[in-house]
Amino acid sequence: MSDKPSVLIFGGLNTWSRSVTAFLVPEDGEALVSSLRIVDKFSVHPPTTYLGSQFPKILENPLVEYKQANLTVAAMVSKMFDPPEGQAPYTYIFDFTGEVRHDRPDMVQQQQTMNVARLLGEEAARRDVKAYVRVSHPYYETPEKGSHDEKESIKPVGVRGIWWHEATRVLASIEKLNLVVLRIGLCYGPYIDYGVLCSTLTVAAVYGYMKKPMKGLWSPGKNSMNTVHVDDVAAAVWALAGWMATLGRLEANTIAGEDIQTNDKSKVKDVEGVPDLSTKLVAPLFNIVDDTQSTLVSIGTEVTGLFGTTFGFHDFFTTTMVKLTKLSESVIEDINEEHVGAWVEMMQASNPPVVKTPLSAYMDESILQKMTIAYSANKIKNVVGFQLKRPKFERAHLQEMVEKWKEEGSWPNPPEKSS
């Protein structure tokens, strides 16, 4: 029997779990785990979500197993915790579940985010797993000034933010669960086709192709938008699992427990499964961001620089209209009209043509809205001893993303557009 942990990853095939899998079972190098099972709603044969060119190769490793399952069903969740015959029970659980689309209504978020987390957490507690690491997206709004540690109360943003936060509260309420929560910044890296930074990179390429500046909607204030490379997300969940496994929930709460703030009562009261709003909930909580302290301006400058253009801001009239209409559908369509068409042109002009790509130049409301993400990552460094692998948001990391997409035929290579 191997003395390496056995890992079960739930969800995140369309966000981070592919990268975490590559970290745990690298193509070249020794695996960190004795076995790895990934469970999600998507099919991989044939794929019903983007997989990238790396992940299918890793699935060929005999240590790795993929299961397609409906995690809203309690019996199916329990079944997924049962290891293959002759294999020891799973040691670590990594929970990447939850609906990431911003336009899903409350009922969908309750079912797909909060209730799935509850089913997984309750089953993990029954199985007495040594560590349960929940990754929380940056669906929060922090104050613009300074960076904010885990003790500070920050507000969940929108329907998505409310129910992702409620999933954290639900898990924190399960006393016997060896839970640790990792709250991440804006994530990016090879094969990551989800999120603000991926969308920004794609649109910047379009404006580079058109030889025009890319423009932001919001005035150049502080506007922190802290970033984190997916390599560090992967390394952090692994480090936190090992940390929790040596301590257990009670001691981990003593060392790193934080009060999990109450949600918007008007939104969550009387909803089945929501913990008592008067109950104090405590769980180990850590932030993870890089050391760059990125802002809207610094990200825009770095990304556009990769494609030979510049970053600026829309005129006063446009920004005033956005403030007045709060990103109405017509404003969003006006903003997208030029660069979406040019992205299609780039696909067609590419040599060879790009016939299939997971990337889109369309920027929806969740991408265009003003956001402030200003986290302090001192706690995970000081308490766990975690060291960042990619401490800076650098142009070279963005170039690596583009090159990986080019290699698999997902990124266009058009001739230079004439002026």
UniProtKB/TrEMBL annotation:
Protein name (database record): NAD-dependent epimerase/dehydratase domain-containing protein
The lineage's top-level taxon is: Eukaryota
Family annotation (SUPFAM superfamilies)? NAD(P)-binding Rossmann-fold domains
Record-linked InterPro entries: Epimerase_deHydtase, Lipid_A_modif_metabolic_enz, NAD(P)-bd_dom_sf
Q: Which Pfam families match?
A: Epimerase
Residues in NAD-dependent epimerase/dehydratase domain copies = 109-241
